[in-house]
Amino acid sequence: MAERAYRRILLKVSGEALMGDAPGGIDTSTVARIADQIHAAQATGVQIAIVVGGGNIFRGIQAAAAGMDRATADYGGMLATIINAIALQDALEKSGATVRTQSAINVQQVAEPYIRRRAIRHLEKGRVVIFAAGTGNPYMTTDTAAALRAIEISADTLLMAKHGADGVYDSDPNKDTTAKRYASLTYMEAISRRLEVMDSTALSLCMENELPIVVFDLAAEDSIIRAVSGERIGTYIGSEQSVPAGV
Question: Rounded to two decimals, what is the model's pTM?
Answer without folding.
Answer: 0.93
